[in-house]
Amino acid sequence: RVLRIGLIPGDGIGREVIPAGRRILEALPSSLGLKFEFSDLHAGFETFEKTGAALPDRTVEVLRNECDGALFGAVSSPTKAVKGYSSPIVALRKKLDLYANVRPVKTVRTAAKPIDMVIVRENTEDLYVKEERTIERPDSEGGKYAEAIKRISERASSRIATMAGEIALRRQKIRDSSSSSSSIHSHPLVTITHKSNVLSQTDGLFRTASRAALSAPRFASALTIEEQIVDSMVYKLFRQPEAYDVIVAPNLYGDILSDGAAALVGSLGLVPSANVGEGFAIGEPCHGSAPDIEGKGIANPIATLRSTALMLEFLNEEDAAAKIYAAIDANLEEGKLLTPDLGGKATTEEVVQDILKKL
Ligand code: NAI
Ligand code: MG
């Protein structure tokens, strides 16, 4: 099988870590029968300054017509609004209908308090439809106010819950087949997150549509389905993170929960994500362009390497993904070659070489 992968380094350390994703794909054993073709593509703030477009049309066209998946590094956002600039990854999610943002948060097995969860965030609607407006009123009537639309559809809620169910089944299959690893979850669990006690129509619809999707026989027979109000979930996420397996959430709660969960594992440099649609996935480390360490050669490449594996999972190459995860875990468990964000002294290059050797 030939997989065509678009590479979009973006800004800052994106350019230092995305090449590592390409190298690990090229280093996969030939027994897997996988070949890769790469397209170098542009997006980001520097691209905007050079060309006037943060997401050039060519990048979208090549991804749409010539790629099976992609890796996206990070982009810098100007601190003040710049006319004509808007985030290219947000635009890409829309243009390619990447309706799910999937973020696994996991420690190695040897961690004092092991965690192994995945947050599955709806990526197309909720408050992020960005339908906001400001209404001017005279001060005598209370002054101006602003409001925003929170849109929740049955279709999008059902679709994201179905993906969460599929991920929970796949995780269980992987656990069942890897005899050696002592998983912290004995039974697959999906937790539906909402605030339907207050927002009975919007979050209420998310809740009922998710429940309905997860009551399909293939899920109901294999998974435990729970639900939790989002604020109490934040509390438990920090007190008892090991309790969670798969979390499904509408866009805004999912955004906040997934950054919060990333804080549980010590460094942003470890946490991957994938933007997933029908038959297409973009792996994306969850960190930004990290201007404070740009150009020093010390960015942790693991978030990108894990994002590369995650992309492969959604392209149905689970065996290849498992090999990459195992090589990364071996590096972390050994703990000899770590970048400074993990308390080590190694460079990006040394960590990449160690992981390639372990692969
Ligand atoms: P950031 O994620 O770039 O950095 C936060 C802190 O984590 C910094 O101290 C950085 O050195 C460290 N860090 C991040 N990734 C690391 C890695 N791989 N290895 C070692 N240390 C790492 O977030 P920040 O500083 O808030 O934002 C910087 C720029 O990135 C801004 O322009 C922001 O808009 C953009 N950004 C872009 C994102 C994206 O492309 N998806 C996400 C978050 C921020
Ligand atoms: Mg975020």
TrEMBL record:
A GO term from the CC aspect: mitochondrion
Pathway: Amino-acid biosynthesis; L-lysine biosynthesis via AAA pathway; L-alpha-aminoadipate from 2-oxoglutarate: step 4/5
EC category: oxidoreductase
Reactions that this protein is recorded to catalyse: (2R,3S)-homoisocitrate + NAD(+) = 2-oxoadipate + CO2 + NADH
UniProt keyword list: Amino-acid biosynthesis, Lysine biosynthesis, Magnesium, Metal-binding, NAD, Oxidoreductase, Phosphoprotein
Required cofactor names: Mg(2+)
A Pfam family this chain is assigned to: Iso_dh
UniProt GO molecular function: homoisocitrate dehydrogenase activity; isocitrate dehydrogenase (NAD+) activity; magnesium ion binding; NAD binding
SUPFAM superfamilies xref list: Isocitrate/Isopropylmalate dehydrogenase-like
GO BP annotation list: isocitrate metabolic process; lysine biosynthetic process; tricarboxylic acid cycle
InterPro entries: IsoCit/isopropylmalate_DH_CS, IsoPropMal-DH-like_dom
The enzyme's E.C. designation: 1.1.1.87
Annotated Isopropylmalate dehydrogenase-like domain residues: 4-355
Superkingdom: Eukaryota
Cited PANTHER family: DECARBOXYLATING DEHYDROGENASES-ISOCITRATE, ISOPROPYLMALATE, TARTRATE (PTHR11835), HOMOISOCITRATE DEHYDROGENASE, MITOCHONDRIAL (PTHR11835:SF48)
Family the UniProt entry places it in: Belongs to the isocitrate and isopropylmalate dehydrogenases family.
Protein name: homoisocitrate dehydrogenase
Organism (species): Daldinia eschscholtzii
